[in-house]
Amino acid sequence: MNVSHEIDLLVEEIQRLGSKNADGKFSVKFGVLFSDDRCANIFEALVGTLKAAKKKKVVDFQGELLLQGVHDNVDVILLQE
């Protein structure tokens, strides 16, 4: 799978699992995204896809890298739909 396609799938999953925040942007907790069965089946490397999406300014989250457990409550915010 290429990176652009994975980022498109990530956008769909954030919309499916998240909700709109006060700014009208979709947001989902990293723990919710990471523990979702459908996401686990789609993404071989969710953290890598998130990092690539952040670099392309499709999503934003605090920090450089998200780790399961440690960053479960970090919001992943969708900047582009």
Automatic annotation (TrEMBL):
GO biological process, one term: regulation of actin filament-based process
Residues annotated as domain Costars: 1-79
Superkingdom as given in the UniProt entry: Eukaryota
Signal peptide: none
Pfam families: Costars
Family: Belongs to the costars family.
Entries under PANTHER family matching the protein: COSTARS FAMILY PROTEIN ABRACL
Protein name (record): Costars family protein ABRACL
Organism: Amphilophus citrinellus
